[in-house]
Amino acid sequence: MYETIARHRLPELLRAMPKAELHIHIEGSLEPELIFALAQRNHVGLAYPSIEALRAAYAFTDLQSFLDIYYAGASVLLTQEDFHDMAWAYLTKAAAENVLHAEIFFDPQTHTARGVSMGTVIQGLKRAVDRAQAELGISAALILCFLRHLSEEDALQTLEAAVPYRGHFIGVGLDSSERGHPPEKFARVYARCRELGLRLVAHAGEEGPPEYIRNALDVLKVERIDHGVRCVEDPALVQRLARERVPLTVCPLSNVKLCVFGTMAEHNLGQLLAAGLVATVNSDDPAYFGGYLNQNYLDTFAALPQLDAGHAYTLARNSFEASFASDADKARWIARLDDTFARFQP
Ligand SMILES: Nc1ncnc2[nH]cnc12
Ligand SMILES: [Zn+2]
């Protein structure tokens, strides 16, 4: 229906279209400038002498090489104000990119292991979420992620520490080092999360095999898969994901920076959409991977010639439909999306 919109208008359209972001680690939005400012404010020492030296270290060979530097960057976060400032900086940028709704991951174990309380993390983030709704008109919700390189016992204790703040987050996810830490390692903690009525997602099929995607669905009973790009290695799984309309939160710039794909031209987003999957575009860790949400859309569409305005519409619509927002909010946002595309029609 929108294929008639000229290719040269795509960048303008991609920027203007309303969209949701469903895969953003808030600690991955921490820009080097803010890392240095918070280090100074909190008297925390850093391993890098300057902002430029830190940024120069952002050359990753795989997920683990990134995670090592990402956890080091998060060490400057100590107070509620720090968590607020980090999330506020992200939400300000997202609102300027026509993101109407963001579902934001946070990694409490990264902070509680350093002696920062669960309340400090969650209340600081929640203040930014509430302020962004009031001052920027952007809707946001928090998703607590368990670190999969740690034990399930640690995840269970983390969940119990978060229960007093149950009203401040909508769901749980699973992130960090994927290989060697399969979803079934977290079966009991996800069962407890289901009892608590939390929404469930998990990273799977980023570096891990298609079996991790299957087990995230069958054992953890997740509602969305974060990344999931390796599903294409298992055609029966692709068929199932399409039939059951399981959303995939794909992160193109991340995938290239972490060498999941050699170049953006080799990314399989076009293949996922052609297979009828409910794929979405997301930024993952924008401060580390070279761009926020619109840059992900722009670079992907520039590199994949088969993607046109019809795909842009599908991706934006998928982002709303795959969100955990109310049906009324989804309908309102999709109406705004339709209005934007109508303006671009020849
Ligand atoms: N891309 C990613 N995969 C797994 N864990 C992460 N934590 C932050 N970004 C991540
Ligand atoms: Zn991620």
From TrEMBL:
Annotated binding of Zn(2+), by residue: H23, H25, H203, D284
Gene Ontology molecular function: any one: hydrolase activity
SUPFAM superfamilies linked to this entry: Metallo-dependent hydrolases (SSF51556)
Catalytic site: E206
Residues involved in substrate binding: D285
Keyword Zinc in annotation: yes
EC id: 3.5.4.2
Cofactor note: Binds 1 zinc ion per subunit.
Cofactors: Zn(2+)
Protein name per UniProt: Adenine deaminase
Organism lineage: Bacteria, Pseudomonadati, Pseudomonadota, Betaproteobacteria, Burkholderiales
